[in-house]
Description:
The chain has helices at about 10-40, 45-90, 100-110, 130-140, 140-155, 180-195, 225-240, 255-259; strands at about 120-130, 165, 170-180, 200, 205, 210-215, 250. The chain is α+β, with helices and mostly antiparallel strands. The longest helix has about 45 residues, at about 45-90.
Amino acid sequence: MMPWRPRIDLPALGLPLLLAVGGLYAIWALDVLHEGAQAHPARIEGGELLLWAAAMLLVLGWYGLHQQNERRAHDARQRAAEARTALLGHEDPLTGIANRAAAEEQLQLLIDAPLAADTHIAVILLELDGLRQIEALNGESTARAALKVVARRLEAAVRLSDLAARVDAARFAVLLPEVAGASAAEIVARRICGAIEAPIEIDGSQHRVQARLGIALDTEAAGIDATELLRRADVALHAALDDRRGTWRFHHADLERTA
Length: 259
């Protein structure tokens, strides 16, 4: 391991150092002026010049420091604006979690990166059942509030390494990197369903939604890309929506023949 060395910002130290030197120079110039006025009146002119030079150094130093601070503040504001723009492009405006673009981008990064031994990538697509009824009976604002609650619960139900995203009006996706297999993905699916199906309280009233899930893993074919993995999860989701007996379905080859 490389030894730690303190990072010295020379441009940042330069102007304060100049101000310090200018201040010491001004003190010395005042001392010379004082001594000259007492012992050698002819030296007063030289002392005044020294004092003026010190004052100029201080003024120039202050101006330079002010300009440097202004540049740094401008750069910080610009970086913050760029970060906000990038975030807005990858954030769902209603729920605050990732959007479809972020999910697709992150999934491709996961696919391109090497995985730990005996692990896989899983994609869970889930659609909410009951949200339309909430909107029809209680209005759009209540439905939007319910979506926000679901998003928070979804993030709380998955691991820190997982990504939860809202990819459509009532549809969410969860990316699971490095899961052991179908059984591990099923544990997450069960936890998600339990979290979402708990009563949602909005303005003193309780509402309920359910989630139907489609799950796809990268175990079926080598070289699969993000678009194909999401498509397979979508096929599995439609099978879960058609089959009311189950809450989730895994993608398999037979579903392609019946889709």
